[in-house]
Specification:
extended, single chain, 129 residues
């Protein structure tokens, strides 16, 4: 029998953004200023770092939510997971994230390589704001 998830679990949906904010606050406090030069020194773009931090924060939110639900007598089947957890699901998630990280720099390069002439752009991209 399925039950509704109480609204008190809703803040965990924002755990990724909260984690990003905390990480950047910590980095900013550590360098006493803008953390972008530190990330550049590490060889990591701000975008990729933020995306990775967001996913780690979401993972924390999911783990906390699952632990709280299991502690209160909930089961994974209550969340729609009927056959248990399969390791291949984790592999797919990690592989998808890795592909996204690798493709992320390609998007700006692709956009910048689009024709600058408005006449040669597709009509959907030619709209003026």
């Amino acid at each position: 029998m399925s039950r509704s998830l109480p609204l008190k679990y809703l803040p965990f949906a924002w755990s990724g953004l909260i984690f990003i904010a905390l990480v950047f606050i910590f980095l900013g406090a550590t360098v006493r200023g803008d953390p972008r030069p530190l990330l550049k020194e590490w060889g990591v773009s701000v975008d990729v770092f933020a995306m990775t931090a967001h996913e780690i924060g979401l993972l924390f939110g999911v783990v906390i939510t699952l632990r709280l639900l299991l502690k209160k007598g909930g089961r994974l089947s209550d969340l729609g997971v009927k056959s248990g957890f399969k390791a291949v699901w984790a592999v797919y998630a990690v592989a998808g994230f890795a592909v996204a990280i690798l493709l992320y720099p390609v998007v700006p390069d692709t956009v910048l390589s689009l024709p600058q002439d408005r006449q040669s752009m597709p009509r959907c991209l030619n709209a003026r704001p």
